[in-house]
Amino acid sequence: MLPDLTTIKDLLPEISLIALAMWIYIGGTIATQRQWWSWFSLAAYVVVGFMLYKQDLIMWPYLSETDGGAVSGPLVIDYLGHATRWIAVAMGFVFTLMSSRLIGRRTASEFLATLMLLVVGVMIVARANDLVLMFLGLELVSIPTYVLLFLGRGDRSSAEATTKYFFLSILSSAVLLYGFSFLYGMAGTTVLMGTEGNPGIREMLGTMTQSEVADGLGRFAPFALILILAGLGFRLAAVPFHFYAPDVYQGTTNANAGLLTVAPKIVGIVGIIRLIVATMPLSAHLGWQLVIVLSILTMTIGNVAALWQKNLRRLMAYSSIAHAGYMLIGLTVALAGRNQGLVENGGVAAMYLYLLVYVVASAGIFAALSFLSSEDREVNTLDDISGVASRHPAIAGAVALFMFSLAGIPPLAGFWGKFSLFGGAISAAANVDHAATSSWLITLAIVGVLNAAIAAAYYLRVIATMYFYSSSREEDARGGWEAAVATGLCAFTVVALGILPGSIMRTSRLAEQSAIAGTTVKASSTLAAYQTDARVDER
Amino acid sequence: MDSQMLLLISLVLPLLGAGLVWVVAPLGRGAIRWTALVVSLVTLLTVGLTVFSADAAVGGVFAVSDYQWLGDLATGAPDIRFSVGLDGLSVWLFGLSGLLMVTCILVSWEAIQDRPALFYGMLLMLACGCLGVFSARDIILFYIFFEFTLIPLFFLIGIWGSEDRRYAAVKFFVFTLAGSVLTFLGMLAIVFLHYQATGVLTFSIPALTERFAVEPIQPLALQCAIFVALFAGFAIKVPLFPLHTWLPLAHVQAPTAGSVILAGILLKIGTYGFLRFNIPMLPDAAAYFMPMLMWLAVAGIIYGALVALAQGDMKRLIAYSSVSHLGYCMLGLFALNRLGVQGGTLQMINHGISTGGLFAMVGMVYERYHTREIAKLGGLSRRTPLLALFMLVFTFSSIGLPGLNGFAGEFPILLGAFQRAWLEAPTGLAAQLLAIAVLAVSGVVLGAWYMLCLIQRVFFGPLKEPHEDGHHEPVRDMKLREVLAVAPLVVFVFWIGLQPKFFLDRMDGTLNEATAQARRSMVRLYSDTEEVAAVDSASELRVAGQPNVATPDGR
Lengths: 539, 555
What we know:
The complex is a heterodimer of chains A (about 550) and B (about 550). Chain A is mostly helical and about 550 residues long. Helices cover about 75% and strands about 0% of the residues of chain A. Chain A has a two-stranded antiparallel ribbon. In chain A, helix 4 (about 80-100) runs parallel beside helix 15 and helix 14 runs antiparallel to helix 15 (about 345-370). The radius of gyration of chain A is 22 Å and the shape is globular. Chain B is mostly helical and about 550 residues long. Chain B is built from 21 helices and two strands. Chain B has a two-stranded antiparallel sheet with strand order 1-2. Chains A and B meet through helix 17, helix 18, helix 19 and helix 21 of A and helix 6, helix 7 and helix 8 of B.
């Protein structure tokens, strides 16, 4: 199937970023100034941001008229995809800013271009409506990550981290692919959400009869579910696929660790929404018990293990594991609710909202750590930041904000994430007519909030180290004003979303609606017609 | 200006002040603390005007403002609103918050040398949080202010506290958070049960109260579960025995201002929560748990008093006395009759004033001698007669000397407890309740004992001063600043003591409404109880020779 012109147009931002990345790769061999290429990348993200904006001008009015999204070639055009692309570009911008002074002078252009490819990977996953494209996007996130990890620092621990991540990531990709093969085997197509006359996996699985589910091809649905969950669970760093995280984070640079908390989480969650919640209606009754166990284990193990960490990146790794557990609460609600007939139950919206607020705070923390680091001396342990508050009050204040946000203390963004997750769980528990489901959801919510209290202990320890102790050494703080700006942007977002969370609540709600209301998916021709109309209107 | 505007200004001013403190920070400590003082005084003015406005005298809800905040469900966001206002339950606590904030700033005037901008900024943010908690009329807004108060106090204890401050700060935060997250779940459960029952997703406290007071959540087990969830956060905050272990540590380690505000205001959030949420929204469960909660309350009274007796550290002693006094508040509230609830609510204010004052006085002693050890001090009334006098007033207020505010609170509480035990006792519980009431009275004796011991050892007898700090110049008596810090509190000690009716009248209607359903549930749950038309309001008691004016019926 050849993609038609509208699909190419839809992909223009991605294509531009790839072209620019190639330009950086090639140009970097000639001109090696780190500063110059950083500016070039930043400008590229701004330009692509503008392109996204232009696309949105056409898409939003179209999307607001329909419940679901539209299909354009192997892409799905919906709120979830569009919002996630914005996050991807913002992520690229922030991470370029924070690392612009710290990346190795000779490998600067490679780092920046690889980061850009990774951003493209996230953008592709955001809208993939085809198993092949989804896998391509996921790999376009993974492979640049190997390179980035290796470029991070030339020492042995860095090499160890890279190797570890490489092998486990390959394994998880293989597992995921195996899961995809079951999906393909059951449905006979690689398209996730089909259109009228061209059914996708979602429709094929949705229309299976009871006997087919029990004895026919439907028997393979649990395999597909478990394998896909395992493959994406690695990206989320969910227990029991979390073992790599602490070692890898510790072994790499602050900016890379930050990237690892952000990019795989985004693709993991979006992948889960697309593959498990939206595509596999069969998965609901199988999935929610499984996910409840994963969720409880993940957050508890993550939080308890984080209590003992002295290395900041290790601590953040366990915190990242714990947050994956919270996000799985949203998945549980989505699946359990659907199993009881509540299709739009806020579970996906809560998970997505939580992802947004987590990503901002986490990126901010690593931006601040980058600011405090220098090229040859990274901030590693808690001791390294003791007494920072008296020397860099603004940075320390920002880190405190991020930590409070991760702990879910109002009035910061993280609170609304917790509000949505626990509110979703309690709301589903109150609304389903099934006592066992209700009580499990309530148990999950109680474990979740108690975990939030445990988590506060180690977040507070970081704040206490910065504010309550005097310093043992001067840190170099060579991250430059770029890293400071990145920190400031994240801090501003955390506070702004904390005080006015209405916009992200709306976005995540729309993302949920459009991602799982698959029945009204329209063919690309409709969208193309709409785009033409819009253009005519403009004139 | 109308009270509605005044209330909004009182909420915003401290936040603006916190920003202003940062702006003037480069000018030095003097500019910072004067800014903070002026801001807190203006806030006190607006708070005072709100609390004593004509609207407040009418009773019921006043100064209400209500703005859309997140948007509504149609746009994908839950309809959480910025909705504030005051009523009989909150009006005096709101006023107390404004009052104690000025005290806090004045007692920190010289004690705080390190990072003053951060200190006063945090103090003002804390003020905003406290004022917000008591004025919130949206359940999530309440929770936001409730949790938000943790952040500034965490820094206040952790940066400016004593030796063990870091541990105390973290323990305080995590302990309180562990409880309040469960409270949060309970609140969400209330909201979504309301949604399930009526199809309206509202977070408005009055709307939820209205619904669940009329048609309590069924079955009783569910209601009790939600009660326990709310209880977790509020009981830790109160703190109710045996969840009090964080309190003495936090109090002893906190700087004076932190102790004052912690004892004076933050503990009240717990009792206020019980009165605002547990009793009106979960009336059956409140009635069901009544005997258990009264036992816990009286255990706190006795335990707190006994432990206070054994303390050698002044601050720790007062901290344990707080455990004891808050036990009285809880005892009064869960006596679930008009007298008890009135007394319990008044006792919240009284405890804020007297214990806030006591902590301020102990802080002044500490500033002079750098010790809080009772054994190292003695006969200070010769050296600092004025300080001793103020200390004496707050002590008498704390032990409930008739004519002072403590009596006006404790006496109705005990009457309420006895009324519950003798006249309204549910079948089978009479003996228990009587035992509780008698034990509570013995707590009064213990309270007088440990406080008078403290006073006698530290302020009277032969003069004893610690010399290890090398004090060469003689210790001075209170300065004008220090007098001004606590003098307003003394005014209220006498005012409430001599004219409790003025304060009670403004609370009575709302209190009655808030607890009416729980009283009915009592009758339903323990069906043999008879409603007794005995003494029904503390206003009807002749306290300090006030003419007896019965409150109008029908409230």
